[in-house]
Amino acid sequence: MSCLIATTLADPVVVSVTDFGAKGDGRTDSSQAFVMAWTSACSSEVPATMYVPWKRFLISSPVEFQGPCNGTKIEVKIDGSIVAPDGAQSLGSSDSWIMFSHVEGLVINGGAFDGVGSSLWACKASQQSCPEGPTTLTIFGSNNVEIRRVTSINAKLYHIVVHSCENVTLEGVRIYAPKDSPNTDGVHVQNSVNVRILDTGIRTGDDCISIGVMHLACVTFEN
Questions:
Q1: Tens-digit pLDDT profile for residues 108-146
Q2: From residue 221, how far is each of 51, 156, 165, 184 by CA, in Å?
Q3: Residue 117 burial by CB count (10 A; 0-12/13-18/19+): exposed, middle or buried?
Q4: Are the C-beta atoms of residues 13 and 47 closer than 8 Å to each other?
Q5: Residue 214 predicted with pLDDT over 60
Q6: Which pLDDT belongs to residue 128?
Q7: CA angle 35-37-42, nearest 5°?
Q8: Which of 35, 52, 158, 177 lies in disulfide reach of 184, CB 3.0 to 4.6 Å?
Q9: φ, ψ of residue 129 in degrees (nearest 5)
Q10: Rounded CA gap, 81 and 127, in Å?
Q11: pTM, entire model
Q12: Span 38-46, average pLDDT
């Protein structure tokens, strides 16, 4: 006697930010649409992708994409650009513009983050009262993270911060800001274990890579 057992694998879930009203015109605030798309993808029981199409999307307020997610892997696939608001005071006193927190198995793949930092740099140069500025992309309290083929330009402050994480790989990342842009560190690593930075090009106005207080940390750099 024999039996046939059929198994069906659920198709991966793809959630586009445009499904939730994001407008890729570079002018309309898409912050809430991005958060709603993330919530949908993060709640999936099967591998999910949050997709950002080939357009420019304004995120005019600080956003936090929170975990843990229901699935074991979640990807943010970016074909287009994510743009910060202009102006020295545009993001207030926030220390992060875009943050992913407490996510297991996160992949951020492709795309560009434009911090539009020139107004804040000019404010600092003129010695006016202006905020310190936010980091463009913060990964906090997350494990098994991959950041691949991402471009970050003109951050208001740091470009990428990896804080309190384990097993993080940055590969094929490109980071640019003018040589006179203040405090625009490329990658800052803090309290993290097993961080690898591979095939990454950085040209900024401050440290290319900076390392804060570490506990049992191992950071690897490879060309």
A1: 999 999 999 999 999 999 988 999 999 999 999 999 999
A2: 29, 25, 17, 19
A3: buried
A4: yes
A5: no
A6: 87
A7: 90
A8: 177
A9: -80, 110
A10: 31
A11: 0.91
A12: 96
